[in-house]
Amino acid sequence: MKRTTPTVRSGRRVREAARRRLEILDVAAETFSEKGYEGAQISEIARVAEVSLSTLYAMFESKDVLYQAVLIRAAESIRDVVRARVDVIEDPADRLLELIDCLLCCFDDHRALMRIHAMGTHGLPLRVRQTMGAPVVEIYRAFVDYVTALTRATALAGRLGTLAPEAVALALVGTINATAAEWIESERDAPLGDAAPTIRAIFEQLLIEENK
Length: 212
What we know:
The protein is an all-alpha fold and about 210 residues long. The chain folds into two domains: about 60 residues, Homeodomain-like (Arc Repressor Mutant, subunit A), CATH 1.10.10; about 150 residues, Tetracycline Repressor, domain 2, CATH 1.10.357.10. Helices cover about 80% and strands about 0% of the residues. It contains nine helices and no strands. Helix 1 packs across helix 2, helix 5 packs antiparallel against helix 7 and helix 7 crosses helix 8. The longest helix is centred in the N-terminal third of the chain and has 34 residues. The model has no long low-confidence stretch (mean pLDDT about 85).
């Protein structure tokens, strides 16, 4: 009879812990989305995820930490989906335009969490905003750097004329942020993706034809 080695058992425990962590995050995301930060209860999240409170707190030491992990996971999910769709496009200008469509559609997929996060800048406890600061800033800066890399590639392809790619990147990020903020605050039922054609049209006007 083949014996299970300590290394194999250790690997299984690591995989099981990772799986359980993702299940907790899934339940927490749904709970925060439905009930908001204040309304969500750790005990309920543990019950629905079918883990003990001690197990949950061993992975996430507080409600604040769990909430932050949910938001970071959503941001990373959006980043991965966007890059998977955008990076495979050959033409840099088309990559820039695809970014608009993809990003707004991804925001739609995380609509409830987006609203909680935006509302949180005004209504979340101070301790939560303080602990979330560094990770959120890091994700935002990485996003701005990514968009800037896209606009620089577009400029190198001769599609931005004399426009500074850094300025175009900031304008694009600002437009998307302002559109998302207005959508969140107005609580419209229409998908945020409906705004994509208008934003695309604005930035298409900045692009010049190839070999022109």
